[in-house]
């Protein structure tokens, strides 16, 4: 069982930055990939980025690469998502999630292949 608690969401102006945090707890954490998804109103949940807790390897969805950076602090068991140059289309609920390394998520990047979810944190970008 893995528990995930997001924080850091809020209101930011277009062009601004935010850093989201995901506090991870549970057993055998190095057997998991931690990933961020987001879901905008009326849209499907979409993959943003992921990081392996054991290796630090990362993957991103192409449209966000360069603006968003995922990182981990193993001592604090926390994963971060640094978001820069935010625009109106980035408004969404951002979810932290965990997927087993042994599963198919690293190649699929599908929300159906995630094992555990946080409750989400709302990011609102204003003009």
Structural write-up:
There is one protein chain. The protein is mostly beta strands and about 130 residues long. About 5% of the residues lie in helices and about 50% in strands. The chain has 1 helix and 11 strands. The strands form 2 sheets. Strands 2, 4, 5, 6, 9, 10 and 11 form a 7-stranded mixed sheet that branches. The chain has a 4-stranded antiparallel sheet with strand order 1-3-8-7, with no helix packed on it. β5 and β6 (about 60) form a beta hairpin. The chain is globular and about 40 Å long.
Alpha-beta content class:
mainly beta
- The termini sit apart by 40 Å
Order of helices and strands: EEEEEEEEEHEE
Mean pLDDT: 95
Strand content: over 45%
How much helical structure, as a percent, in the residues? under 10%
What is the count of helical runs? 1
Low-confidence stretches: none
Shape call: globular
Describe the structure concisely:
The chain is mainly beta and 127 residues long.
Set down the secondary structure blueprint.
Blueprint: E1 2-7, E2 10-13, E3 18-26, E4 32-39, E5 46-52, E6 58-60, E7 68-73, E8 78-83, E9 92-100, H1 105-108, E10 116-117, E11 121-126
Parallel strand pairs: 2-11
Antiparallel strand pairs: 1-3, 3-8, 4-5, 4-9, 5-6, 7-8, 9-10, 9-11
Name a few traits of the molecule:
127 residues; mainly beta
């Amino acid at each position: 069982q893995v528990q995930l608690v997001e924080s850091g969401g809020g209101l930011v102006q277009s062009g601004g930055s935010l850093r989201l945090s995901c506090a991870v707890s549970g057993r055998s954490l190095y057997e998991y990939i931690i990933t961020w998804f987001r879901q905008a109103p009326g849209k499907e949940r979409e993959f943003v980025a992921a990081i392996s807790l054991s290796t630090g390897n990362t993957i991103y969805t192409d449209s966000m690469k360069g603006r968003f950076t995922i990182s981990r602090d193993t001592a604090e068991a926390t994963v971060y998502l640094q978001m820069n140059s935010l625009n109106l289309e980035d408004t969404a609920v951002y979810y932290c999630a965990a997927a087993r390394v042994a599963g198919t998520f690293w190649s699929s990047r599908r929300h159906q292949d995630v094992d555990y979810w946080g409750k989400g944190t709302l990011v609102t970008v204003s003009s």
